[in-house]
Amino acid sequence: MGVPPAVASASVHAVETFTTAASGVSHVVHRNVDWKLFRRLVIPGMIGAVAGATLLSTIDASVAKPFVMAYLACIGLYLLFRAVGGEIKPRKPRVVAPLGLVGGFLDAAGGGGWGPVVTSNLLIQGATPRHTIGTVNTAEFFLTATASATFFSVLGWSAFTLHTLGILIGGIVAAPFGGILAKRVPTRHLMALVGGLLTLTSAWSIYSALAK
């Protein structure tokens, strides 16, 4: 569509401010949020989002996206392995604040990535899928709102376009169902779903980048 990376990321984050709000409310209602984990994630994530949005507004940091996608594809395959035959033993994640910082930065600088990066790495550390998904999605509202405000302060109104209006409408309609799925789908099936989606979307992103 010929949209500059900074404008594209700004538009996406503006839309996600509304969709993540709807998703977050759903997860809170269905008690999918680990509030202790939320507090450890949200502030570093917001700081990372400001840094990423500021960097993308001055240079094209999206060139690193294929490397991030390759990493996430490997993580997805590992999660699939654990879901199919590996042991799933819940543990308290230790590396949280640095993960939130990196996830927030990559999300704003690369136009997306908070969910895949943070969710997958928390699952690897042993966090339960239900509360990981609910907590990460709820924290994402604050992340996207911060990134949107940063893009607006740097780029002005030119940061926001009408290209993503359809995504906004569809996202708000679909977002609440995530809370229901996270609550009702069994742990092993939920981990397999996360791993499968992560592997497929990452592989497609790598292919798209190499095909250009």
UniProtKB/TrEMBL annotation:
Membrane-spanning segments = 41-61, 67-84, 165-182, 189-210
- Recite the UniProt keywords alphabetically: Membrane, Transmembrane, Transmembrane helix
Q: Tell me the superkingdom of the source.
A: Eukaryota
- CC per GO annotation: membrane
Which compartment or compartments is the protein found in? Membrane
Regarding the membrane, this protein is recorded as: Multi-pass membrane protein
Q: Which InterPro entries match?
A: TM_pro_TauE-like (IPR002781), TSUP/Inactive_protease-like (IPR051598)
Output the PANTHER family linked to this UniProt entry. MEMBRANE TRANSPORTER PROTEIN MJ0441-RELATED, MEMBRANE TRANSPORTER PROTEIN YTNM-RELATED
Provide the protein name.
Answer: Membrane transporter protein
Q: Which organism is it from?
A: Diploscapter pachys
